[in-house]
Amino acid sequence: MSQTVVKIDNLVKRYKELTAVDHFNLEIKEGEILGLLGPNGSGKTTTISCLLSLLKFEEGTIEVFGQKMNPDSYSLKRDIGVILQNVAVFDTLTVYENIDFFCGLYVKDKVARKKYVEEAIQFVELTEFQKFYPKKLSGGLLRRLNIACGIAHKPKLIILDEPTVAVDPQSRNKILEGIVELNRQGTTIIYTSHYMEEVEAICSRIVIMDKGKNIANGTANELKLMIQNNETIYIDMRVLPHEDLENIRQINHVYSAEYANEQLTVKCNGGKHNLIHIMNYLQEKGITFGRVHSELPTLNDVFLEITGKELRD
Ligand code: ADP
Ligand code: MG
Fold first, then answer.
1. Containing domain of residue 248, as a range?
2. Residue 46 beta carbon below 6 angstroms from any ligand 1 atom
């Protein structure tokens, strides 16, 4: 059995009358990359801030590495690396000096610290920029500096809060690859995002959050099996008589069919040959059609089925 790294029980955090985190539960085991996926405002950052004891909360308990987390739990904080949503570095320090400062909060030995700082710089590939001041860095490089500051002291748990928002694709890929590599080296990761593709690509387990609640929990495949949607088929066509739409709705495994903007959208559950049944029907009726494509369920479909709204705003 791997060790429990984080245990959040029944967390409630209110900002006046708004309940930002609502009886939220989460348990994370050593070695996981836990994706906390939810739309903007769902309570991800608030949960992270409570976890780090940066915010007081109304109800619940939080344990990290089996111990209760408090604002002055310095020995616990030594083992946690935090990369917050808003970049937090010093404008008056260079790239090297910034990383050295944050690493120095936890690593006092000078020789070890120098090694750690250099490793962090290499890790985020900022070697050429180590003498630069943050103001001279592009958005993507600045994010990478922010990450280096959070990981240089080699924590056992790393928490990244939306590290790829407004980041160019190249830096974004570097960040995602870096997270996977840190995990491969044994670090437990909490990764929050509202981008389902990223969460699906790198996370070993996903918790979907909405309105402060944990609404679903599992691997991407487990989450997709929880819902009835198995395939969504899109067929372009100029016209579709209402009677035919009704008939398509009666085809085996079809649970929803809509026609709008010259496109037929058919949602199916179960079964593997849904597309062929629909094509056969259209052919039989002599209905002409254009482009056809079919999509397997996404995490957005999971979110849509549970909450009735899209994950993306
Ligand atoms: P996320 O990180 O998922 O986007 P947040 O945790 O930032 O969500 O916010 C959750 C909810 O709490 C939102 O409705 C947000 O407007 C509200 N909120 C966040 N921070 C504060 C604050 N300091 N004061 C009042 N309301 C806040
Ligand atoms: Mg946030």
1. 231-296
2. yes
